[in-house]
Amino acid sequence: MTERNWQQTWLHKATEKARKAKPYHLFENLIANILVLLISFIVAIALFKLGEDVINLLVNRAFDPLKHETFQTVFGGIMTLLIAMEFKHSILVVAKRQQNIIQVKTVILVSLLALARKFIILDIQAIEAAKIAALALALISLGAVYWLMRERDAWNMEHGRQEEG
């Protein structure tokens, strides 16, 4: 198949799909694609900023991964990028119509990543014990919910049932 034929076939399929789609699905797809573009732009800027921070730390000879502040800066930035990319991926799945809605498990996973990031950048001397306990309880609760949802999905697959959303 030539490049031109492939383009015409792809365009024809996309046009047919758009013609058959309901207006709200087109709107939802448009919004999802705009969000993917915006988040991709944010990820690119954050990656540039993280690279800039690491280079500045290296040039100033302040890059000591065993130093808590350096660790917080570098790994906090990395975790932020991972969270943004996972969030973008969940929206991309909706945009590609592999799922109708963003899955609750994905939202819980992103929340778990955000809490893990919080623990990484946490200044243990500057925060109260009650706040650490509350964060730990939130982490355990989200982990339990994620585990329960995974178990439910495994049970449903084992018994031949469809996922309920």
UniProtKB/TrEMBL annotation:
Keywords: Cell membrane, Membrane, Transmembrane, Transmembrane helix. The keyword Transmembrane applies. It is a multi-pass membrane protein. It comes from the Bacteria. The keyword Membrane applies. InterPro entries: P_starv_induced_PsiE-like. The chain crosses the membrane at residues 30-51, 71-95, 107-126, 132-149. It is found in: Cell membrane. It holds the Pfam family PsiE. This is Diguanylate cyclase.
